[in-house]
Automatic annotation (TrEMBL):
Species this chain originates from: Azospirillum lipoferum
Organism superkingdom: Bacteria
Name of the protein in its database record: Gfo/Idh/MocA family oxidoreductase
Domain GFO/IDH/MocA-like oxidoreductase: residue ranges: 140-256
Keyword flag Oxidoreductase: yes
Length: 354
């Protein structure tokens, strides 16, 4: 059967959506169109899933065959929204085809695999950008700017709190893609990445507490010593009653506190406390998928500094692995800093020798 490609208008850039598992993909398709670019293909292991997703969202092509996608000269970018275990397959395929990649985070199930994917993309000279919605938040970007400008003085502590009953990610199929066994992984990597983004510091050592060392951690409290000596304290739970999220950065001159930025619902606020007084900072948050797609599309010209890279995902995964290991073993775990050539530092979990 002869395949007909959709010819996009001059100046428009085409995308392939790799994976159909989450509602996030639907939001990103809308964001792609909002900036004048075109979702052209949907790829899935299951032909029926690809066809249903493409039909629902008005995407012209659906396939299980990646070779068909790469033959289409209009496809410039790949958005990977598959399960964690499938992201490696799609990232490697897109890199081999010379397509720039936006992938949901974390980019892999473990830090070793993630580091290998960073190497593959670097060798192929393609961009690997990680979809980290917390970085796209205008409130968090404002916090980072104020911290960098010295509004709170020298950072002493960062506190991240969120929790609530476990709610499986919405999917188009009645399937659990990654299982409940590692439900903490997305939460931990997101929170660790946010702390690194806000402070610019790297994790050095982690100690964690959980209800039972025999169970996969779904109720965690942990502390991380950062490279500047400050402390990161995190509470993540899928067992508690619903908690309004809090991101607090405390310095020796003042405090910044963001409420409701991590739960994806309702209006969020940013408050500054200086000289014993609280001040509400007016910040109008934007649509996070749209901000992410705009940032990715502009990355060809340097791109905004807030975008998460593959190296950032490796650092967050290695730190999350140290947290999980500390919870299992009941003792602190060191995080060995390791540099990627030409890039920033990342952490590698290792047992503390003390």
């Amino acid at each position: 059967m002869r395949r007909v490609f959709l010819v996009v208008a001059s100046g428009e850039l085409g995308w392939s959506v790799m994976g159909t598992g989450t509602i996030a993909a639907e939001h990103m398709v809308t964001a792609i169109r909002a900036i004048g670019q075109v979702p052209l293909w949907v790829v899935s292991r299951r032909r029926q899933d690809a066809r249903h997703f493409a039909g629902d969202l008005g995407i012209p092509q659906a396939t299980t065959d990646l070779r068909s996608v790469w033959k289409d000269p209009s496809v410039r970018f790949a958005y990977v929204s598959a399960s964690r275990r499938r992201r490696q397959h799609y990232i490697c395929a897109a890199a081999a085809a010379g397509r720039h990649i936006l992938c949901d985070g974390p980019i892999a199930e473990d830090s070793r695999t993630a580091a290998g994917l960073v190497h593959v993309c670097r060798e192929a000279e393609v961009r690997l950008v990680v979809n980290q919605p917390f970085r796209a938040s205008t409130i968090h970007q404002t916090m980072k700017r104020l911290i960098g400008e010295g509004e709170v003085g020298t950072v002493q502590s960062t506190l991240i709190i969120r929790g609530g009953p476990y709610q499986p990610a919405p999917t188009r199929r009645n399937l659990c893609q990654d299982g409940d066994r590692r439900i903490h992984l997305d939460a931990s990597t997101d929170d660790i990445d946010l702390a690194r983004f806000l402070t610019g510091m790297e994790p050095i050592e982690a100690v964690a507490l959980t209800r039972s060392r025999e169970e996969p951690p779904d109720h965690l409290a942990y502390a991380i010593r950062m490279s500047d000596g400050s402390a990161l304290q995190v509470h993540e739970s899928f067992r508690t009653a619903d908690i309004e999220s809090l991101v607090l950065v405390a310095g020796d001159r003042g405090v910044l506190a963001a409420n409701g930025t991590l739960n994806g619902r309702g209006a969020a606020t940013l408050q500054r406390r200086l000289n014993g007084r609280n001040e509400l900072i007016p910040v109008r948050d934007r649509d996070l998928p749209l901000v992410t797609i705009e940032g990715f599309a502009s990355a060809e010209n340097g791109g905004p500094s807030w975008l998460a890279s593959g190296e950032d995902s490796v650092a967050a995964l290695r730190t999350a692995e140290a947290v999980a290991m500390s919870a299992r073993k009941g003792r602190p775990m060191g995080i060995q800093l390791q540099a990627f050539p030409g890039h920033g530092l990342t952490g590698r979990a290792a047992e503390n020798s003390r």
